[in-house]
TrEMBL record:
<dbReference type="GO" id="GO:1990316">
    <property type="term" value="C:Atg1/ULK1 kinase complex"/>
</dbReference>
<dbReference type="GO" id="GO:0019901">
    <property type="term" value="F:protein kinase binding"/>
</dbReference>
<dbReference type="Pfam" id="PF07855">
    <property type="entry name" value="ATG101"/>
</dbReference>
<keyword id="KW-0072">Autophagy</keyword>
<dbReference type="InterPro" id="IPR012445">
    <property type="entry name" value="ATG101"/>
</dbReference>
<dbReference type="GO" id="GO:0000045">
    <property type="term" value="P:autophagosome assembly"/>
</dbReference>
<dbReference type="GO" id="GO:0000407">
    <property type="term" value="C:phagophore assembly site"/>
</dbReference>
<protein>
    <recommendedName>
        <fullName>Autophagy-related protein 101</fullName>
    </recommendedName>
</protein>
<comment type="similarity">
    <text>Belongs to the ATG101 family.</text>
</comment>
Length: 179
């Protein structure tokens, strides 16, 4: 199976890295998250609701919505912080990319155990720019905010396409369907 792939490119100031990536990844996760599955009996289940939180950015003119899960937010923020730190290397690397993958676990042939088969990959490529003064920072703040708004609208459009998403698993194979 071929994974569906989306790539977003942005130019940001160093202090905007986390907010830019988090706004994109949280927007994706918001569309790919469902409530808790409550199984009543084989083949019968209900899906709970998902809470949402508005997040106002400090360094970008933007607000985004994320799933109300502190554990998910902490895990994502930790990975993004590691990526941000890798861009501050002494070699002066000022660009990089980070991906969010959705995959399905399937049984592999013997002697292998389970294999992860990605069905969707979202990549953010960043260029980190250095700005000389506050006026340039303000212009960058507005441009990045506009670019993020376009990316979030693009995400919503992609999510609404009738393309492959793994079907809902039955209770005994639920552990094979992971993000």
């Amino acid at each position: 199976m071929n994974a569906r792939s989306q790539v977003f490119e942005l130019s940001v100031e160093g202090r905007q890295i986390e907010e830019a990536i988090l706004s994109i990844f949280h927007s994706i996760l918001l569309h790919r998250t469902s409530g808790k599955f409550n199984y009543k009996r084989e083949g019968s289940y209900s899906i709970g609701t998902v809470g949402m939180v508005d997040v106002d950015c400090d360094f970008v003119n933007s607000t985004f919505v994320r799933v109300d899960s502190d554990d998910l937010h902490r895990a994502l923020k930790r990975q993004v912080a590691e990526f941000r730190e890798s861009l501050k290397s002494p070699e002066g690397l000022r660009s990089g990319q980070i991906s969010l993958e959705f995959y399905q676990k399937k049984k592999a042939r013997w002697p292998f155990g389970m294999e992860n088969i990605p069905w969707e990959i979202w990549t953010v490529k960043l260029n980190v720019v250095t700005l000389a003064n506050e006026h340039e920072r303000q212009i960058c703040r507005e441009k990045v905010g506009e670019a993020l708004a376009e990316k979030i609208i693009c995400i919503a459009g992609v999510m609404n396409r009738p393309e492959y998403v793994p079907k809902c698993q039955i209770n005994r194979t639920l552990q094979m369907f992971l993000m």
